[in-house]
Design goal:
mainly alpha, globular, 13 helices, about 0% strand, about 75% helix
Length: about 325
């Protein structure tokens, strides 16, 4: 057994043990922490599989934002899971076993782990994406070329999903559902601790600067609009957790968030309409600079990634503000 396979086996064993522990645990806070651990180990697996962009997203969303939102949800409910009668567990167990059996049976058709002769390596389209895209798009990061250019329309659909999901959650939690409840005064504030206050104030500009780096460096390395948007949101979430919701909303007003949620999607669609008015297809960035198509591709991808980052960051931040603004009910 090679070291590569051994590391993967160990991480897979940790994932299985964590999943089993989550199913057996009734303390919701502990289950949330284990879910964050599950996402962290999954991100490590993605890194080992050279899927760094996916690992970036898993770490930022699964470990960071999702954990904060789950903790915010626990603040609105009880901390232990209700006991489910045994007769109601059986259908769920049957579905899990059947689904697992189907997946295990389908996995028999997969190529050997790490095989150089797998269809992914031998299919002609691999040559197109990995090599010809460097000439067509002029961007070193093939993932960015695929997501923002070749598959730009599909990525627009993903952004619409984020936009719609954000509106749905905000409709349930935000001012569209009920007037904001006044939270009872907390016994303590994190900002009262000088170390936490100073460290947070020092980290905030670094977090936002790193988000900008991830956004504008996504053409050359792991990153892009989705990852940068989540990192932006994590910075505002950290600020809100330490200094309070009121001060966080002074930095990013709620009305501005509602505007930015729509602005990113409108910019994305507007870019597609602009390329059509210039005589090209929808999201055909070559027409942005007909004399230098590669420059047009760079410009179009930059606009797309920025639009994605704006919408993702705004949705995540607005959802956190909506959770934090609700009163605690036990």
């Amino acid at each position: 057994m090679t070291t590569f396979v051994l590391i993967h086996s160990v991480l897979l064993a940790i994932l299985i043990a964590t999943a089993v522990a989550i199913t057996r645990m009734r303390a919701l806070y502990g289950a949330t922490m284990l879910a964050a651990l599950f996402s962290l180990v999954t991100a490590c697996l993605f890194v080992l599989l050279d899927a760094v962009d996916v690992a970036f997203t898993e770490a930022a969303v699964g470990v960071g934002i999702s954990t904060v939102l789950l903790l915010g949800g626990l603040a609105l409910t009880r901390s232990r899971e209700a006991v489910t009668p045994r007769r109601r567990r059986l259908p769920g167990a049957v579905v899990v076993l059947l689904t697992g059996g189907v997946l295990a049976y389908a996995a028999l058709d997969l190529p050997e782990f790490g095989s150089a002769d797998s269809p992914v390596q031998r299919h002609p389209i691999t040559e197109t994406y990995l090599h010809e895209s460097q000439k067509d798009i002029g961007i070193p990061n093939t993932v960015t070329s695929v997501l923002a250019s070749y598959r730009g329309l599909d990525t627009l659909g993903e952004l619409v999903v984020v936009f719609t999901a954000g509106l749905a959650v905000l409709s349930l939690l935000g001012p569209l559902a009920r007037p904001e409840q006044v939270r009872p005064p907390a016994d303590f504030h994190l900002a009262d601790y000088r170390v936490i206050r100073v460290v947070t104030g020092t980290l905030m500009p670094l977090i936002l600067l790193f988000a900008l780096y991830v956004l504008f460096h996504g053409d050359y390395g792991p990153g892009g609009g989705f990852q940068a948007g989540v990192i932006f949101a994590s910075g505002f979430v950290l600020y809100g957790l330490v200094f309070g919701l009121d001060k966080a909303q002074q930095v990013v007003p709620r009305a501005a968030l509602w505007l930015l949620i729509s602005l990113g999607l409108l910019v994305y669609v507007g870019l597609g309409l602009t390329t059509m008015l210039l005589g090209g297809s929808f999201l055909d960035y070559d027409v942005l600079d007909p004399d230098h198509p590669a420059s047009g591709q760079h410009l179009g991808i930059l606009v797309v990634e920025t639009a994605i980052g704006v919408t993702v960051a705004s949705v995540m931040t607005a959802i956190f503000f909506s959770f934090a603004a609700r009163g605690v009910s036990r």
